[in-house]
Write a structure and sequence with these properties.
five-stranded mixed beta sheet; seven-stranded mixed beta sheet; 14 strands; alpha/beta; binds zinc ion; globular; about 350 residues
Length: about 350
């Protein structure tokens, strides 16, 4: 577990999640002298352990949960907003999140049924998922037991500036990991709160975003993420405070390493075809045999993300057979012709 640590006005308070990812870092922005209490960025899951860790961290700086003035969220995943509602009750403060979080938050209270479920299952079928597993389309909202349902007080927008007493945070919408992800940048102090968009030890996953209507489009999470990486690359920060793991001092080389890893993964997907055609599910089984049964949604997110990119680059041929999409890499001779 990382220690509670102070970086100027920002205090990192790690709290346990019980998930494979380990602790999640919440950040308290300390008030200037004489001002009321801190502002909190992300909350941890809803559990007594997380609550106690947050309290203990705040106490070191003379505050309690009741002193929190405002809760800002980076995105609507359980480890980030799980105990936001409880903090709001205790502190009487507001909770703000990006406007795209509305749908994400609803998924923790509404069962997937009717048309949205049918549309999701159709996608799963097309990717070659066995029929009995086509309903397995839940991502993080599977973890409902560590979340208290939340209706936020305000929706944030891209490029908006959150004005705190003497700290200004620019909101940068960075979809990819999920549609409602934002990074907060304190341009004056050159500090960024990167949520799960930039993480030092793991490459963030870009979760599938399934449409809820028959005529709905599925955005490509990985392509969104790549665009959002450019936004993160453009931000002027000397200190990046991520939601998992230690601080990042050089986000430029971190982003460069992500790009290298994404290229490697893309090549791995291409070689998994072994010269033939395959469904997304078959590729997932070849590349992630150990994980696909337990983490179908994660594995498909990874594979489909790369298939989206390869398809956009004109590297794949597809055909539909009995409702399933078969992908095949174009041969280099075909690519040459297509480019001619
Ligand atoms: Zn997340």
């Amino acid at each position: 577990m990382l220690p509670v640590e102070r970086y100027g006005r920002y205090v990192r308070i790690p709290t346990p999640t019980g998930f494979a990812v380990g602790d999640v870092n919440t950040y308290a922005i300390l008030p200037s002298r004489g001002a009321p209490g801190p502002v909190l960025v992300d909350t941890g899951v809803r559990s007594d352990e997380a609550w106690e860790a947050l309290r203990a961290g705040l106490r070191r700086y003379g505050f309690d949960v009741a002193d929190i003035q405002l809760v800002l969220l980076t995105h609507a995943h359980p480890d980030h907003f799980g105990q936001a509602a409880r903090i709001r009750r205790e502190a009487g403060c507001e909770v703000w999140i990006h406007e795209a979080g509305e749908r994400s938050l609803r998924r923790y209270t509404e069962e997937l049924a009717g048309e949205p479920l049918e549309v999701a299952r159709q996608h799963m079928r097309a990717w070659g998922v066995p029929e009995e597993r086509t309903s397995d389309v839940r991502g993080p909202e599977r973890a409902r037991d560590v979340v208290e349902p939340l209706v936020p007080d305000r929706w944030l927008r891209d490029e908006e500036v959150v004005e705190l007493a003497d700290v200004r945070l620019r909101v940068i919408h960075t979809p990819g990991h999920c549609p409602d992800h934002i990074v907060y940048v304190d341009e004056q102090r050159r500090v960024a709160l990167s949520g799960d968009h930039l993480l030092p030890d793991i490459t963030p996953v870009c979760l599938l975003q399934l449409p809820t209507r028959r005529d709905g489009e599925r955005p490509s999470s990985l392509m969104q993420y790549c665009n959002s990486l450019e936004k993160a690359e453009a931000m002027k920060a000397d200190l990046v405070l991520p939601s998992h793991g230690d601080v990042v001092r050089d986000h430029y080389s971190l982003i460069a390493s992500y790009r290298t890893r994404m290229d490697e993964r893309r090549d791995a997907v291409l070689s998994a075809f072994a010269g033939g055609e395959a469904t997304a599910y078959e590729l997932g089984r070849r590349l992630f045999a150990d994980a696909i049964d337990d983490q179908l949604f994660l594995v498909l997110s990874e594979i489909v993300g790369h298939l989206d990119v390869l398809e956009a680059e004109g590297m794949l041929e597809t055909r539909s057979v009995a409702g399933r999409t078969l992908f095949r890499p174009m041969k280099s001779s075909e690519l040459a012709l297509a480019g001619a």
